[in-house]
Amino acid sequence: MELKVTNAQRAEILTQALPYIQQYYGKIVVVKYGGNAMINEELKQQVMEDIVLLHLIGVKVVVVHGGGPEISDMLKKIGKESVFLDGLRVTDKETVDIVQMILAGKINKNLVSLIEQKGGKAMGISGIDGHMIEAEMKDERYGYVGTITKVNTEPVCDLIEKGYIPIVSTVGCDMEGNTYNINADTAAAFIAGALKAERLISMTDITGVLRDKDDPDSVIHCMDIAEAKTLFADGIICGGMIPKVECCIEAINMGVERVTILDGRVPHALLLETLTDEGAGTMVIRDKSEAGL
Amino acid sequence: MELKVTNAQRAEILTQALPYIQQYYGKIVVVKYGGNAMINEELKQQVMEDIVLLHLIGVKVVVVHGGGPEISDMLKKIGKESVFLDGLRVTDKETVDIVQMILAGKINKNLVSLIEQKGGKAMGISGIDGHMIEAEMKDERYGYVGTITKVNTEPVCDLIEKGYIPIVSTVGCDMEGNTYNINADTAAAFIAGALKAERLISMTDITGVLRDKDDPDSVIHCMDIAEAKTLFADGIICGGMIPKVECCIEAINMGVERVTILDGRVPHALLLETLTDEGAGTMVIRDKSEAGL
Amino acid sequence: MELKVTNAQRAEILTQALPYIQQYYGKIVVVKYGGNAMINEELKQQVMEDIVLLHLIGVKVVVVHGGGPEISDMLKKIGKESVFLDGLRVTDKETVDIVQMILAGKINKNLVSLIEQKGGKAMGISGIDGHMIEAEMKDERYGYVGTITKVNTEPVCDLIEKGYIPIVSTVGCDMEGNTYNINADTAAAFIAGALKAERLISMTDITGVLRDKDDPDSVIHCMDIAEAKTLFADGIICGGMIPKVECCIEAINMGVERVTILDGRVPHALLLETLTDEGAGTMVIRDKSEAGL
Amino acid sequence: MELKVTNAQRAEILTQALPYIQQYYGKIVVVKYGGNAMINEELKQQVMEDIVLLHLIGVKVVVVHGGGPEISDMLKKIGKESVFLDGLRVTDKETVDIVQMILAGKINKNLVSLIEQKGGKAMGISGIDGHMIEAEMKDERYGYVGTITKVNTEPVCDLIEKGYIPIVSTVGCDMEGNTYNINADTAAAFIAGALKAERLISMTDITGVLRDKDDPDSVIHCMDIAEAKTLFADGIICGGMIPKVECCIEAINMGVERVTILDGRVPHALLLETLTDEGAGTMVIRDKSEAGL
Amino acid sequence: MELKVTNAQRAEILTQALPYIQQYYGKIVVVKYGGNAMINEELKQQVMEDIVLLHLIGVKVVVVHGGGPEISDMLKKIGKESVFLDGLRVTDKETVDIVQMILAGKINKNLVSLIEQKGGKAMGISGIDGHMIEAEMKDERYGYVGTITKVNTEPVCDLIEKGYIPIVSTVGCDMEGNTYNINADTAAAFIAGALKAERLISMTDITGVLRDKDDPDSVIHCMDIAEAKTLFADGIICGGMIPKVECCIEAINMGVERVTILDGRVPHALLLETLTDEGAGTMVIRDKSEAGL
Amino acid sequence: MELKVTNAQRAEILTQALPYIQQYYGKIVVVKYGGNAMINEELKQQVMEDIVLLHLIGVKVVVVHGGGPEISDMLKKIGKESVFLDGLRVTDKETVDIVQMILAGKINKNLVSLIEQKGGKAMGISGIDGHMIEAEMKDERYGYVGTITKVNTEPVCDLIEKGYIPIVSTVGCDMEGNTYNINADTAAAFIAGALKAERLISMTDITGVLRDKDDPDSVIHCMDIAEAKTLFADGIICGGMIPKVECCIEAINMGVERVTILDGRVPHALLLETLTDEGAGTMVIRDKSEAGL
What we know:
homohexamer; alpha/beta; 10 helices; 22% strand
C-alpha cells in the first residue's frame, strides 16, 4: 500500500479517531493471537504496533496467544511422532514439555520482545504463573490436554495496574504440578470472561463466518447468539469455525460485551476494528434487538 | 479539504503517530491560545478536538488563554473609550472588571464548554483561583496592568491530578483583592516555566518569524537563543513579534524544553506540531549545538 | 457593635463553641449566597470570614451564588431592554452571555478573591466546569432559562478533597454547548441534595417566614414539611417566599438534613446559625415529631 | 467569671480568632502538663476542653504529662519512705514500679478519659510503648532515675496520623526491660525537639519568670537565649525555675520554634496563648533580633 | 528440656511448620493472657517469644490481658480489705483506681516491655483509649464491676495497620468518665468477636476441660457447642470452668472460628497450638459435623 | 534423615530462629539457583520449600536461575552439535532460541510450578520481560553470548510489591529484538547489585572454596576481597571457581552486603545459611576488619 497523505490529512485522521478512543478509554480488550495469524512477519509487526498504540491511548490490552506450527516443527525436529485422537493431539509428558517450552519460552518471549521494540512495556506470563489458569485432564486418552477449571485474574490485573501489557501463553496447571495444553481460543474466552472484558478480539487468518463457504464476499458481519444457533443448525457454521463461534458465545455468556472473529490478514485489522467504523470479520453479540440492531 | 482515505490508510496513519505519542506521554504541554487565533470558529473547534485528543493519549495539556477582540467589543458596547499609553491599554477599575468578566466569565467558560462537547473533561480557572497568578501594578500610569510576581502551580497540578484539562484565564491578583490584566503571552511563559513544561506552544494567526517580513516563505523554522539575539539586533524580529519571542526566551530560561510560535490558521496545527514531523511556525530552543541541530 | 471582652472571656467563648464544632466536623454545609444579601460590603466581608472559619474548623463549606442587581446593571449599561414573562426574564443569547459573564466572571471571582484575602483557599467554578450542572430549556418562550436535569457532584468533591472551598456560579450547560440561566435557590437545593449535605443555608435579606407579614417579630423559627404545606394553603407563605420554601422542601426531599432561610443582615449570621444556639430566620426540617420537637 | 455576651458577640469573637487558627493549622504543639497545674479539677477540665478545641481546629496537639503529688501519696499509702539525694528521689525497683503505675496507669488514662468526655479522640501511651523514650541510668546512686538517650517519634506520629490526640506519660525504657523515671519537663523538651514542634507549652502553676521574685507583676513576657543566660548569671532565674528554663533552651536548640512557661492557673490559658494576642507566663525564643522583636 | 538437634534438623523442622504458617498468614489471633498463666517468669518469656514469632510470620496477634494476683497484692499493701459478693470483688472507687493502675500501668507496660525485648513492636492500650471498651455497671451492689455494652475495634485495627502488636488491658469506660473492672475472659471474647478473629486462645494454668476432674488424662480435646451444653447439664463442666466455656461459646456466636482453652504451663503452648498438629487443652468449635469432625 | 523430635522441641526450635528472622525481615535476598544444584529432585523440592518459608516470614526472595544440562540435552535431541570457543558455547540463532525456550519456557515455569505446589505465589519472568536485562554481544565470534549493559529492577520490584516471588531466567535482550545467553552467575550478581540486596546466595553443588582442592575439609568459610585477591594470586582459587568468586566480588562492589557460595547438596542449606548460625560453603564480604571479623 503506497500511502500519500499530507500531514494535514494525518492530523485530520487522528481527530476522527477521537470518539472511538473515548469509547475504549480504560476498558479491557482481550486479543487472542495465534496460529496462522502469526505467520506473516510484516503483519505480526503491525499487530504489535496496534497493540502498543491501543495501550498508549488508554485501552487495557491483554494478549492471549497460542502456538501454531512451531509446536509441530519442534516435535518433528526431536523426532516425536504426533498421534491424533478425535482431532486432538495425544499429549504425553514429553509433548506437553515441548508445548510449554514453545508457548511460554519461545512465542511468549518473542511477542514481549516485539512489543518492547515498538516502545511498549510488556510482561509475559503463562497460565502457571500466579496459578492463573487452573486445569484438569479432559480425558486420560488424550494425555495432558486440559480443561479449564478456574481462571485467577489477579496476575493479569496486577500487571495492568503496574502499567504492563500482559502477554499470556495458554498452558494450564494443577496443584500436583502438571502442565496442560489448553486450547487458546477457549483460554482467551475464559480469561476475557473472568475479566469481564469490553471486547474479545480473536485474530484469525480467515475472512470470518461465511454464509456460503465458497464465496468470500458472503461474510456475516454481525450475528447474535440466537442467529448463531440457527446457523449451527443449518450447517452454515461448520468445520473449524464451530469451536471458534462456540468460544465467542461462551465469552459472551461469561460477561464479555462483544466478541469478534477478526481477519488478521487485513493490515492493522485491530485498529480498524477498534478505532474506525469498519471491521473485518464477524462480530458476535448477545442479542441484536437489545443492542438496537 | 476533501479527504478520501480508506480505513486501512487511517489505521496506517494512526500507527505512524506512535513514536510521537510515546515522546509526549505523561509530559506537560502548555498551549497559549487567544487573540486572532480564536476568531475562526471552525479552527477553534479543531483546536479543541486536538486538545482532547492529546489529553486522551496521555499528554498533560494546560490551556492558557487571553482575550482578544471581545474585550474591546464589550468596552465599546458600554461606551467606554479606550486610552492607550506606550501601546498598553490604560486600565481603570471599570475596565479591569470588564477584562475579568470577559476572560474568566465568557471566553474561559466557552472554551470549557467546547472541550466538553468534544468529550473532554475540563475545568476553567483564573489567576485568582487558588491565588494562582500573583501580580502587582506595572506602573500607576497604566492602571491595573499587572506584572507577575509569582505563579503558584498547585491549582493547575491539582486539576491535572484529578483528570481535568485546566483552562486558565490570565487575570492576576494581589493580597488586597485587586485584579490585574496580564499579558497572556507572558502569563503562558511564566506558567509553563513554573510547571517545567516539556513544551509551550503559542498559537497565533501568523506564519511565524519571517526572515523577510514581506515573504511568507521566509519563515525561520527553528532558532536558538543566540540566533534570536542576532535577529533582534538586525531588526528582523520586529513589531509585535518582539514581545512574543521575548516570552519564548523567558520560558526557556525558566526551564521549558521547547517553545513554538505556531500558525494556528493551519488546520490541526497542534497535532501537526506534536504528532508529525511537520510544524507550522517557528520553534525556539536553548542552544542548537547542544540539541545536535 | 463596640465589643469589650477580656481575652479570658474570648477563650471561654471559644470553648463554648466546642459542641457545635464537633457537630459539624467533616460535614458538608452548602451556603447559598446572593441577591440582596450580597449588597452590604461589610456584611459580605463578614460572611467570607465566617466561611473561612467554618472551613478551618473542619466544615466542608460549598458556596453557591447567584447574581442579583449586577446582571440588570450590565444589561442596562449595554442598552439591552429586559422583557419579563410570567415573572421570568426572557433570556436571549446575548442576555445569557451577560449572565454567564457576570456570574462566572465577575461575582464568582470576586468571592474567590475575598475568601483568599481572609486567608482561605478557594476555587471558583461554574455549572459548566466538569459539566457540573446539566440543564435544558424550561420553555422556549423564556429563552435560555434552564431547568436542571442532573447535578454531577464530582467537580465539587474533587475541589473539597484538594482542600479548596468550592464557589459555584449557577449557570447550567447542555451537550450542545448552550448555557442556561439557572435560579440560584433551585441550583443550591439540587447541589445540596446531590451532595447529601448536612445543611443548606440560604442567605437572604429578610427576617425569615413571617406569620404576619407586617410584623417582623412574628417570624416562624422552625417548621416541618407538613406545617409548610398548611402555611402555603393558608396563604401565609406568599410572594417571593413561595419558591424559596419550595426549594427548602425539595432539598430535604433529596436528602439534606436541615435547611435554613437565614437573615443575612444579621452580623455573622452564618456563625450564629452553626456555632451557637441562636439562629436568625426560619429552619425547615422533614418532620418535627421525628426530630423530637 | 460571669459572662454576659450576646451570640452576636460570640460570633464576632470567633472570627477574631481566625488569624491565630490559620497560624497553627496543621502544626505540632506539645503541651507539657503536670504537677501542681493538674490539681485544680475545674482548671483541668478547661485544659482538656482547650486541647480538644485546638485538635478540632487543626492543631496537632501532643500532651506530655508527669506525675506530681499522686506518686508521693501512693508511696506514702504503701508505707514506702522517700529518700532524696541531690534533690532527686532515690528510685529503687519498687518505687519505679509505683511511678510507672501512677503515670501510665492512673494519670495517663484519666487524662484520656477526660479528653474523650469532651468529645476528643485520644490514645494514651508511655515511653515504653513502641520503645518511644529510650533511657539509661543517670547515676547508680539515684537508682532508676533516667537520662533520655533517644526519642523515637514514630508512635506519636502514627497516632496523629490515625487522628488521635497522643497522651504521653514520661517513663523511659532500655533494652533490658528496665523502666526509668524521667523528668517530665526534660521529656517534653526532647519530644518537642524530636518532633520539630512549632511550640512547646509548659503548663505550670506559677506566674512565669519574675524579674523580682517577690513582685508577681514583674513577669518577663519574652526572653531570648542570650537574655536567659544573663538572667541565669544574675541569679534572677533561680530555684526550680532553673531546670525549667534550661529545658526551654534545650527544646529551642533541638528545633522547636517557641517555648512558653505558661501560668496554668489562668482559665483557658492554653487558648489565650494560642488564639489571642495575650499570653500568661514567659515565652523563650532563640533570638529576639532575628525574630524582629 | 535438653535439646540436641543438628542445624540440619532445625531447618527440617522449620519447613514442617510451613503449612501451619500459611494457614494463619494475615489472620487475627486473639490471645487472652492473664491470671496464673502469667506467674512463671520463664513461661512468660516464652509466651512473649511465641507472640513475636507469630507476629513476624504474618499472624495479626492481639493480646488481651487481665490482672491476677498483683491487684490483690496491691490492695493488701495499701491496707484495703477485699469484700466479695456472689463471687465478685466489690469494687469501690479506690479499688477500681488500683485495678486501673495495675492493669493499664503495670502489667500492660511490662508486657509491652517484654515483647520489645524480644524484638517485637508493641503498643499497650486500655479499654479507655479510643473509647475501646464501653461498659456500664453490672449491679450497684458490686460497685465498679462492668458489663460490656460495646467494643470499638478501631484502636486495635489502627495499631495493627501501623505494625504494632496491640496489648489490651481490660478496663472499660463510660461517657461519664467512670472506669470499670471487666472480666478479662469476657473482654477477650467480645474483642475477638468484634474483630471476627480466626482464633481466640485463652491461656490458662489448667489442663483443659476434664471429663473426670480427678483424672488429668481425661481432657476433652475438642467439643462443639451442642456437646458443651450436654457437659454443662451433666455437671462435667463445673466451677471456674463454667464461665470460661461460656466465654468460648459467646465468642463463637459472635463470629470467631475456633476458641481454645490452652494449658499455658506447657512450654511454647502457643506455637504448639498454632504451628504443629498438637494442642494442649480444649478446643471449642461451633459444630463438629459441619467441621467434618 | 530420620527425625524424632517432640512438638515441644519443634516449638523451641522455631523460637530459636527468631533473631535470624528479625535480621532478614523485609530484606532482599537473591538466590542464584541452577546447574548441577538443580539435578537432585528431592533437594530441589527442599530448596523450593525453603524459599516459600523465607518469603512467608518476610524475606523478599528473588530467584535467578540458569540452565544446566537441559540445554545440552535439547541441543543433542535436535541434532545440533555444540562448538566451544574459549570455554564458551558458540551460540548461533538456532542455539539461542533453544536456550531461551529451555530457560524461560521450561525451567522457569517448572520452578514457578514447584513453588506454587509448596503454597507460594510466584511469577516467572525472563530478562526480556519489561526489558529487565539489557545486553550486547560479547564478541561476534561467540554469537549470541551476551554481556549485560544494564539491569532494570522495576519488573522485579513490581512483582515483589504485588506479593510474588520473582523467578528470573537469565536471557538478555537488546533494542533490536535479539536474545542473548547470559551467564547466570553474572546475571545474579548484577541483579543483586542493582537491587542493593542484603545477600546473594549462589547455590552450587560443591563444598565451597577449598584451601586444598583435594581436602573437602579445607573449605574457607569466610574471606574478604583482599584475601580473595591473594587466593587468586596463589592459585588456590582456580578453575571454575575463578568466575564464581569474581561474580561474588562484583556483586559486593555493586552494593550487596554479603555473598555466599553455598553447598546446595546439604539439605535445607538455604535455611541453614539464613536462619541458623551454621553455613555450608564460602562467604565473601567486603572487608573483614570493617566487619569486626
